[in-house]
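Please predict the structure of the following assembly.
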Amino acid sequence: MNDPLNVVGRSVERSDGIGHVTGRTVFASDHVVPGMLHLKMVRSPLHHARIRGIDTSDAERVPGFVRALTAADVPHNRYTILGLIGVEPEEEFVLAEERVRFKGEAMVAIVAETEEAAYEAVAKVHLDLEELPAVFDVEEALKPGAPVVTHWGNNTFMYEGHPCRRVRLGDVEAAFARADHIVEGVYDTSPIEHAPTETTGCIAVPEANGRYTVYTNTQALYFSLDNTSIILQVPGNQLHFVGGTVGGGFGGKVDVIVEPIATLAAMKTNRPVRYVYSRAEEMQVSSTRSAWRIYLKDGVTADGHIIARKVTSYADSGAYSRQTPYALTKHAANAAGPYAIPNVSIDAYCVYTNRQPTSAMRGFGVTMASFALEVQMDKIAELVGLDPWTIRFLNAYHDGDMKPHRKLAEDATLIETMQAAAALVGHDLAPDLKAMTSAPRGRRGEESGRP
Amino acid sequence: MTKLRGTGIAAVNYPTGMNLGGDPSQALIHATTSGSFVVSLSATDLGQGLKTVIGQIAAETLGVEFTEIVVDTADTDTGPHDMGTFASRATHRVGNAVIAAALEARQALLEVASEELEAAVDELVFDGHCNLMVKGVPARSVKVADIAALAQFKYGRTIAGRGSFMKPKSTVDPETGAMDPDSTEAHACTVADVEVDTETGEVRVLSIRSAYEVGRQVNPALVQGQIAGGAWMGMSHALYETTAPYYPAPDHSPKDFSEYLMPGPLELPEIECVVLEMPSSNGPYGVKGIGEMTANSPIPAIVNAIYHATGVRIDSLPVTPEKILRGLDAKRATPS
Amino acid sequence: MASTIVTFELGDDREVEVMVRPMTTLQTVLRNQLGLTATKEGCRQGGCGSCAVLVDGEPMLSCLLPVEDVAGRRVTTLESLTPTEGLHPIQQAFIDGYAFQCGYCTPGMVIVAAALLDHDSAPSVDDIRWALAGNICRCTGYGPIVEAIGAAAETIGAGQVEEPR
């Protein structure tokens, strides 16, 4: 391309800077639409329950009440957002049907003239629920006799007949047998909330031409539009999604949760409807990063080469899939780390529990794997008597190395990146580490050093 | 009683693109008769500055100034399809789509200029500002803005371009996991220095110093923004954040910012970095992507630093003062 | 309960009269009745600072402030702070220092910075950090914001800013 570059590589001023510092930038809920109604949600107070009845008669008497929507009102109530990329089955509900599977699950949408009226009506909806046993731990959820969260009978997502995403390269058991050391670790992480400064929300507006405009802070406009079209059973060209400036996303605004029900409410009332999460909803109901439990077992030679790595990971998907099944595949592609390990076994489980559903967050599937792997690397270093830098250089992958998912590494630059970090902090690397490059092994007379 | 200091490192990779591919982005570019070029997209800007970066890529490829680009996003009536802003995909995929669209628009510009200036297309050069001229003959030149008007009113032609970029979707072998998950890999290495108060269990992160290899920086200041914000978020994940303080028990889940803890401006470490550029073969101008990676390496670097400082190995997040104090107690109770 | 009329000053040049139900917050009045959406809504719990405005020059969280409480007082929003020509030095410093990403917390940050620099023309880095302790930013990691406010202080002609600890 053009060399030297004129514009790429320059720190030009942000094109939206003036809007941000003057407050002129328009965020989704900054649209003030005349005649707007407000949607607030009745949510399950229990972690797991059968729905015996819903009574909205007292709510309907609240002054300002306009409409209550339940599962029966939603044309295609059972869906899964990743259905658009071929992930099955459909298992989440716009509004709960027969059962609720997590505390906070949406049950009845109340639409009213004011927020106060909506909140008051929400409080007056009577729920008749029969509590069911709930499960919150990923390994408990996999034991026989555990409460079943899903409708297909076991608490894991099925990957083409397997209860987990599998990666297999070489023979880890044989390598463990000849390894000088076995290093094991269990790593537990917490669910993490995106906590964007702007909460998830949208405003659905009926247009003069019979279409619906939805102002939304989704990170994925067409993804939201297409799922809304499927859920509402209207052609996509009836929907007009407008957004583009998101007040913090971090993966938390890709779940298509608010747009379908707000648009349905606009259709059923013929008025604009605003549905914006409160901060409490954002924290307790909106999806989080999964908690992970990662078991690592490494076979290491006396001189510090990792010759086998077995990873068993459990991601807590919460009550529904959202994006987590995809995360386990991405995790499996990265769970052995940026290292050249000839024998790898990965079993990555997407586990359902009665917890708020989890979904994408910055680093999806990789952040917590990196945590586990890099703490493990230090343990290995200590065991074999090498410093933390050396252990990583020794095992770092090069271009052309076979990755556990059988793709040859390219654009590998871990070695150069570590060299730069060492230089930055004034850590003097040994000459052989300083001289290393990510070039394919066997070039420049380099010993592969693989046992 | 004591404040113990320690250093820890972590080295990570991060993939670019929606896992397994199949995530297309499209772009449309058209010239207006006032000399600007509108780039129409459905991509969303999450605050990382995508609109600015895309404007830079468009300007570079078209051969015009950044100020002549208008990035119009996101409206599904006017913007062509885009998969969304996530998975560190936006600069890479949208950038590539914009380059394709800009090349087509650039060719249309050159063809009109070639007719107007009565020169072959390969004799024309952009001067990097507002003009197209015949190589070596500055007198024979025309403003880019004027070409757009000429195209419309004299030649009855459009100056426009279309582009789409998609990494074809990969399958996954259910037995072996064989797959092609990503377009390229960026890398990071972080060195964290911490100070642990053995009486309160509190951790003060003194510094987070890192090297990042990102392929190409389109806008170095915005890359710095991701680095600083990511370092803070990584520290926040490592030490503070959880929606289930007693996971797996669901109790006491936070509902406001007084309960969901994140470090504030008074907890900031020194953040220092160096950025390497080793262009990828398939990114726009070699871009790899950085939006997610910057929060990852600080987490284990901090946890490793805590071990180095205290000898307490903690394998769960967040590393709370309680976990550190319990670890210190356990250490004291075990004869060494 | 019946609505009442509340009158307050908005910025330097405007008197505003609104009819409100009891306990309507200033945030609601500004955004929904007056269409002044620079003041953001981040939590409505007093926890994030994105709703900050100045009341008689003091930063206050408009999400917790009944509008009756500002009767007869001066309210300054980001709209009032923005000059008719150009930008306030704090706003320019934020642009020059890339002190924002998504922009949602920015109005609250600018408001709090304006109050700080009004009171203290040469704040130390720690003074600035303390002033921002009630404002949440999820994107920038705060560093660029602290630096931009320091730069703005210098521009306003206030002298040297102390080196960080």
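The longest strand of chain B covers residues 3-15. Chain B has two domains: 3-16+183-333, 25-165.
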